[in-house]
Amino acid sequence: MMAAQRGASPNTLAAYRRDLESAEAALSEAEGDLAAATPDAIGRLGALWSGLAPSSLARKCSAIRQFFGFLMDEGIREDDPSHALPRPRTRRPLPRLLNHAEVALLLRQAEEEAQAERPDGVRMLVLLELLYGSGLRASELVSLPLNAAPRDAPFLTVTGKGGQQRMVPISGRARQALSRWLAVRVETMRRDNGRAGVSRHLFPSRGAGGHLTRIRLFQLLRALALRAGLDPAKVSPHVLRHAFATHLLEGGADLRVLQTLLGHADIATTELYTHVDSARLVALVNEKHPLAKSTV
């Protein structure tokens, strides 16, 4: 149901599976399997998880609630025992950020390393340009198909969460880096006897038909940060996505436009960035509101 009806990503499916399996493992033999659990047994699960961080507890409880909701929809159960679970109140932490100068250091380092036209250097440059210049998620970036980058249009076709597709503009800088990478990719394919050519992905992996992994992207980015003289702990693909959003908002981007660019289903997710840029929003109200220039 999660895959077919909701279009959940493989990562989401894996997380739900882990949560449900750990919940069933926590039940005693007398309590039976999770699908037949009583409200008392489910309540004990909540007590067992009480030491978890609120966000982890909320995720586990959500998985259990949706599981029993599915059982009721399918007529497998007539009651929902998940009401016995706690309802932790979570608060999203503000994202870590890189300032303009730190992003410039990363870009400068990547550009210098790409000058030799070595495949790894050119690939790193285009990965960085697309993370910061288009705000892609790591999973969206590494899984881009080769045909996602049309040669005659300044857009990428991106498949985001839930299988939703969107058009994402790419900057002139990113298009130049992408053109360089496509040329280098051909040379890489020839050098490797066609291994890269059998992959339909823009960033093929060394394995036949696969693509660069999110973990490898994370490692490459932190190694670049270290060479650029930045603290690697501050840099990740998601931090660059946050930088893209925050710097656009600082430049006056509309929140609804930002929501579209980021692929957020809910505007509340995008509104997180208004807290990051609160000083600019206060200045905007003081400058643009009709009462700002009135005198009492």
**For this structure, what is the CATH class of the largest domain?**
Mainly Alpha
Q: Mean of the pLDDT scores?
A: 82
Give the beta-strand count.
Answer: 2
Radius of gyration: 23 Å
Major β-sheet, in short?
2 strands, antiparallel
Quick one: CATH superfamily of the largest domain?
Intergrase catalytic core
CATH architecture of the largest domain: Orthogonal Bundle
Shape: globular
Distance between the termini: 61 Å
Strand order of the biggest β-sheet: 1-2
Unreliable spans: none
Question: In the residues, how many domains can be counted?
Answer: 2
Instruction: Give me the number of helical elements.
Output: 13
Category from helices, strands and their pairing: mainly alpha
- In helices, the fraction of residues equals 40-55%
Strand content: under 5%
Q: What series of H and E elements makes up the topology?
A: HHHHHHEEHHHHHHH
Here the CATH topology of the largest domain equals hpI Integrase, Chain A
Model description:
- By secondary structure, this protein is mostly helical.
- It folds into two domains: 10-84, Tyrosine recombinase, N-terminal domain (DNA polymerase, domain 1); 100-281, hpI Integrase, Chain A.
- It has helices spanning 10-26, 39-48, 54-73, 100-114, 119-134, 138-142, 172-191, 214-227, 237-250, 255-262, 267-270, 272-276, 278-288, and strands at 155-159, 165-169.
- Strands 1-2 form a two-stranded antiparallel sheet.
Entry keywords:
296 residues; single chain; 2 strands; 3% strand; hpI Integrase, Chain A; 13 helices; 2 domains
Detail the topology: elements first, then pairings:
Elements: H1 10-26, H2 39-48, H3 54-73, H4 100-114, H5 119-134, H6 138-142, E1 155-159, E2 165-169, H7 172-191, H8 214-227, H9 237-250, H10 255-262, H11 267-270, H12 272-276, H13 278-288
Antiparallel strand pairs: 1-2
